[in-house]
TrEMBL record:
The chain crosses the membrane at residues 21-39, 51-70. Residues 8-83 form the Sodium symporter small subunit domain. The keyword DNA damage does not apply. Keywords: Membrane, Transmembrane, Transmembrane helix. This is Putative solute:sodium symporter small subunit. The keyword Heme does not apply. NCBIfam families: Na_symport_sm. InterPro entries: Na_symporter_ssu. It comes from the Bacteria. It holds the Pfam family DUF4212.
Amino acid sequence: MTDNSSIAYWKETLALVRNILIVWFLVSYGCGILFAPALNNISLGGYPLGFWFAHQGAMYCFIAMIFIYAKMMGKLDEKYDVHED
């Protein structure tokens, strides 16, 4: 890997991690705490949506983010030819 492609690879990797962390923050802190009063006006399965995000929805989002990160990182590795066979 050349220096230019190495720098580009790490820039894209850090951008992906940054975006995943932003989503993580919005789901955990935002939906579970900051936006909970507004979300509680919506009901999901008989429970206020803010309560659901704080107790169950965040976990579902985190698991989905793990799979999304793995898929996107695999594509990025293939793009820069650093993937495992």
